[in-house]
Amino acid sequence: SSDVCSSDLVQTPLDSYQCRHGLGYTVFESSKNSLYAKLLAFVPVHDNCEINLLTLTNYTDKEKEFDLFSY
Questions:
Q1: 33 vs 43: CA distance, rounded Å
Q2: 11-38 burial code (b ≥16 CB/10 A, e <16)
Q3: How many CA atoms lie less than 13 Å away from 9 in the CB half-sphere?
């Protein structure tokens, strides 16, 4: 099947969702169908950019295929 799952702003039903903010960073965590996604977004102190680190964890024994899109 083809499911849409988002780590942050896309409107899709999720099994869990959490968002945390700190000084210069935000962490989005979500899960759906035993797939866990964590997106860390931060701005380095001395750089004029934003860095995003996406970590995906599959909590099943089945192999999963992903298509990633940035917007």
A1: 31
A2: eeebeebeeeeeeeebbbbbbbeebbbb
A3: 5
Q: What is d(CA 62, CA 28) in angstroms, rounded to the nearest whole number?
A: 24
How many Cβ atoms sit within 10 Å of the Cβ of residue 53?
Answer: 10
**Model pTM score:** 0.78
Tens place of pLDDT per residue across the chain (71 aa): 556 555 555 567 889 999 999 999 999 999 988 999 999 999 999 999 999 999 999 999 999 888 888 76
Closest CA to 27 of 36, 15, 18, 14: 18
- Amino acid present at 42: F
Chain centroid offset of residue 55 CA: 7
